[in-house]
Amino acid sequence: MAIFLTEASKVIVQGMTGSEGQKHTTRMLASGTTVVGGVNPRKAGTSVEFPTGSGAHAASVSVSVPVFGSVAEAVAQTGADVSVIFVPPAHTKAAVVEAVDAGVPLVVIITEGVPVDDTAEFFAYAQDKGVRLIGPNCPGLISPGKSNVGIIPADITGPGKVGLVSKSGTLTYQMMYELRDFGFSTAIGIGGDPIIGTTHIDALEAFEADPDTELIVLIGEIGGDAEERAAAYIQEHVTKPVVGYVAGFTAPEGKTMGHAGAIVSGSAGTAQAKKEALEAAGVKVGKTPSETAALARELLS
User: Which of 6, 45, 154, 271 lies 20 to 30 A from 257 at CA?
Assistant: First the structure.
């Protein structure tokens, strides 16, 4: 099993013909993702050739992916149920709204630097329409061996019994590597902006319901109260073991660190406060990513 993304997922790429879109579409195809189309009104009716082999065979095996003029056209012709967005920040809101209007149930927004006002607007719109957003400013999600949508490297780990939800992209990759011998049902990077689509709680709920996820790893960071709210949810609703890590124990007060949402004000939002809230809910929290992985390893063994 997996959450949100399975081997049956049909993916379109908004921004596929741009440099980032092409690079990551190549990676997604190589990792087994079913990419059924791209969207670019100026290049509608064309197609893009992508290598699908690996190593010495990469150039000799290719797949042709069609480009559609709109998301609605792509959905109508391919049955796509996932869209991943690689467009500049100024155009992200329009791209998300277009995907929502086309009825795509899962929209993954990789773009960094999206204005918070825009995110607030398209998030509310997506909620009203029943569409799940992941991101913005996120690495996407991967169900190893099934599908990979976004920029997460697919060769770190294979399928297994760990579910991972993380605010940080690079810490997602590190935790996948640290626990690669156990494997993952799904690893999801939710992004670190002040407003995001899918939250820790959404992922926790899905992992709790997934029969093949035996242990959940939650990675947070300083700023806001998302981790405290996740702790309260875990205490009430999660029966599976959870281990956690909170990035930012050495961050200076009042200074924005990394993600736009990672700012500490007084005692609110500190790594220590989040660690205490999670531990009060029964979560084992490591002081470093490697220590967190060791705690997970003990439970899995």
Answer: 154
